[in-house]
Amino acid sequence: MPRAVVCRELGPPESLKLEDVPRATLAPGQVRVAIHAAGLNFPDILMAAGQYQLKPPLPFTPGMEAGGEVIEAAGVDGVRVGDRVIVKARFGCYADEIVVTPDQLTPLPSTFDYAQGATFLAAHGTAYHALKDRAQIEPGEVLLVHGAGGGVGLAAVELGKVFGATVIACASSEEKLAVAQQRGADHGVLYGREPFKNAVKRITEGRGVDVVFDPVGGEIFEESLRCIAWGARLLVIGFTGGVGVAKTNLVLIKGASVLGVRAGEAVRKDPSLGVVRLADLTRLAEERRISPNISHRLPLEDYAAAMRLLMDRRAIGRVVLTTR
Fold first, then answer.
1. What letter does residue 269 receive in the DSSP assignment?
2. How many Å apart are CA 273 and CA 126, to the nearest integer?
3. Which residues of the chain have pLDDT under 70?
4. CATH level 2 (architecture), domain 123-264
């Protein structure tokens, strides 16, 4: 029987259980994928705790993305047994296999292994939607990336450079900053060494930044308003550090815009955005210009320890659960 990490009661990672589960029936138009690697994302943790906007009915299996191989297909076109694919889901990927529809699959870039595929689209897709669709970042602009040692932060660093921006990366350790600079950051700012708003003003010679990429929230969001240029766009990606409070006078004074970013929901509202995004990201991956940074690969049975790596900010980039 296949295994799956099952959430039967909302709570911390340790409340989840690894169980043998019945094999899902394959209906016409569906595909069965053997999962080789599942990527971890912070929403998985929030979902299991009942703190995310999406609340699946219990029991459910966390996991938004995976890399694997098609092992069975029932009456579908364009998908064959043996295809190496990326699985896009809202949950269900912390498992040995998953049943999905063809629109939830995309070919694995030839330059990636399964783990890279399992950690690609959520982070890079979010960063792409934020910078390209929402901020409409332009070459020569200055981009401030908070949480630049995390998966989505590093994706923003990479894509910011691809889009021609000058990138200032902020992170909580020298090791994380080093990786961000390896991924293209022009400047690194260590939280705690000096207030980041002071560092930004020094780096930009008082001008401030054009775009703020903020997956942290809390005080980070408010302080970012104090180091922006005229017409800046502040991208609200998440709130791992708490919910931020906007000083509306600072938004007004700088003619700034505060933009919420929900990459998945945006595609559900306008599927054409997803077509362009996926094509562009796949091209960049094939050109070896972008790729996930994976700091930890753990077996499926170590799901709780893997989730704790994210919660405790010990990962640099992405964490993967492997099944094979």
1. H
2. 12
3. 244
4. Alpha-Beta Complex (3.90)
| pLDDT for the residue 239 | 79
**Both tokens assigned to 133:** 């669709």
Q: What is the pLDDT of residue 100?
A: 97
Q: Is the dihedral of CA 60, 126, 270, 54 positive or negative?
A: positive
Architecture field, domain 3-111+295-322: Alpha-Beta Complex (3.90)
Distance CA 184, CA 121 (A): 19
- For 79, list phi and psi in degrees, rounded to 5: -130, 130
- Give the β-pairing of 294-299 and 318-322: parallel
Domain limits, CATH 3.90.180.10, in the chain: 3-111+295-322, 123-264
Q: Which two tokens stand for residue 241?
A: 């550090």
The DSSP element (H or E) to which 250 belongs, if any, is helix 248-253
Residues 6+ apart with CB under 8 A from 164: 138, 139, 140, 141
For residues 167 and 156, what is the distance between their CA atoms, to the nearest angstrom? Answer: 9
Give just the sign of the alpha carbon dihedral 305, 59, 40, 215: negative
Task: Look at residue 35 in the predicted model and tell me its pLDDT.
Answer: 98
With vertex at residue 19, the alpha carbon angle to CA 17 and CA 24, rounded to the nearest 5 degrees, is 125
- Give per-residue pLDDT as tens, 45-98: 999 999 888 999 999 999 999 999 999 998 898 999 999 999 999 999 999 999
**Contact by Cβ (8 Å): 106, 88:** yes
